[in-house]
Amino acid sequence: MTKKLISALAALCMAMGAANCLPDAPPNDMSITVQAADTFVYGDYEYTVLADGTAEISKYIGKSEQVTIPLTINGKKVTSLGENAFINNRTMEDVLLTKAVIPEGVTDIEDNCFQGQFMLTDITIPSTVRNIGMFALGGTGWIIEKINIKNVPIIVNDILVEAMNCSGTLKIEDGVRAIAPRALTSNENSLTKVEIPATVTDIPDDALASLPDLVNITVSPQNPVYESRGGVLYTKGAKKLIICPSQKTELTVPAQTATIGEFAFEYGEFIKLHLKSGSKVADYAKSKGMSYDFYDLKDISKLNISLKTSYTYNGKARKPLPAVTNGSVTLEKGKDYTLTYKNNVKVGKATVTITGKGSYKGSITRTFKIYPKKTAVKKLTTPKTKQLKVSLKKVSGITGYQVTYSTSKKFTKSTTKTVSVKGASKTTKLIKKLKKGRRYYVKVRTYKTVGKVKYCSSYSAVKSIKVK
After folding, report:
1. What percent of the chain has pLDDT over 70?
2. Model confidence over 5-36: pLDDT tens digits?
3. Which string of b and e fits 440-468 if b means at least 16 CB within 10 Å?
4. Domains in the chain: ranges and CATH
5. d(CA 157, CA 243)
6. In this structure, what are the phi and psi dihedrals at residue 429, rounded to the nearest 5 degrees?
7. What 3-state DSSP class applies to 8?
8. Least CB-packed of 10, 230, 422, 449 within 10 Å?
9. Whether 147 contacts 127, CB under 8 Å
10. Residue among 51, 204, 63, 236 at smallest CA distance from 134
């Protein structure tokens, strides 16, 4: 692909003008200018030196509409036309090319290289070109002429570079070895099926991206690099999922799949994934907000269950509805499980048993507690010096009340005491031997003893009074 490591030594030598580093003067008295630490100007071109010592043209700065790209620059073989090198950005500085001759020896035409050169109808591409980047020839007159022929993809040096003129089923011909990035991407085509032959061994993640009508991808069984399972494109052995057709609504991902292509699920909000428990794909699905479950988790007791565990007694049966989830999918009561409750009316410990139904099996029992009703401080008085009288709101069906008082509104441990009032009918409590002239804060709650366990309500609102 791109050979982007720069030869720092060559750059340094040219910048310093060292005689033993620079080659002889360029032909036709063409000058060399060092533009930056890694970019040089040679005639009509800016270029960089790649790691292998060859040159990549990074920008065309000439004015001619017809370009014959040199075989060498400053004695260095030209092997790459860089990203955006001849792009037409619709600015005054851009030259509208009509002809471009690429010399033998160029192997790479990078992303957007000639993008937007709509007047460029004559392009000579040598047989040495082995890589054509995303939209490298997009929007050129050369491409525009060819896409007028419906359902005939554009292939250059066995690379499928454009198929925006295709619809329905695209059968890639034998002999094609690579698909360029975004080669099939277009808002204008309506591809529903792509058939990939055994000869295609280079498919970037985005080669089949952004195809909203795609239903199915097939791959020749003889292909050594890729395979199709259920119409989805994987690397051989299904280690990586490259593209899932956008029209799929459910997909069972193979257990061995550990990597997901960048554009695999562009329309992921419309699909539900079925995964093996422990699959690395679950992390991906969760990060993307996708719907997923684990196909090997069908025992209710192995699933995630959340349940509200605290309720207040109201004289009626308490029937909390648990949230049972498999992956990101919430199971449905009645369809996936049933519920059975016990001891769920009176204060104390209650249970709910969740039993699998339909495709789910097994059962699990969870507990929740029912607490007595709250009470409230009706009135605080200080009948005598160093005394505090608390009047409570009556609550039936309880064992008694707890009165908590403190000289701190935060009820710090060292300043706080609690006294009990036994019996539901006794609704006052006199507290003596308090500190004269101090303000006391009071809160109260009910309790009911069931067996050996005391169940307490939540506390009431706090009230305060200054003691005589």
Report:
1. 90
2. 333 333 333 333 333 333 333 444 444 555 55
3. bbbbbbbbbeeeeeebebebbeebebebe
4. 1-140 (3.80.10.10), 149-295 (3.80.10.10), 300-371 (2.60.40), 377-466 (2.60.40.10)
5. 24
6. -145, 125
7. helix
8. 422
9. no
10. 204
Side by side, the strands of the sheet bearing 272-275 are 250-252, 272-275, 291-294
Tokens 């419309």, residue located: 270
Task: Identify whether the C-beta of residue 382 lies closer than 8 Å to the C-beta of residue 439.
Answer: no
Question: Taking the CA of residue 198 as centre, how many other CA atoms within 13 Å lie in the half-sphere pointing to its CB?
Answer: 5
Contact 332, 357 (CB under 8 A): no
Q: How many other C-beta atoms lie within 10 A of the C-beta of residue 79? A: 20
Contact, 201 vs 235, CB < 8 A?
A: no
C-alpha span between 144 and 162 (Å, rounded): 10
In sequence order, which residues have a C-beta less than 8 Å from that of residue 240 and are 6 or more positions away?
234, 257, 258, 259, 260, 261
**Close Cβ partners of 414 (under 8 Å, ≥ 6 residues apart):** none
In this structure, what token pair is assigned to residue 169?
């089923």
Cα distance between residue 119 and residue 158, in whole Å: 25
Write out the two tokens for 430.
Answer: 């006199």
Secondary structure class of 238 (helix, strand, coil)? helix
Per-residue pLDDT reduced to its tens digit, 159-207? 999 998 899 999 999 999 999 999 988 656 689 999 999 999 999 999 9
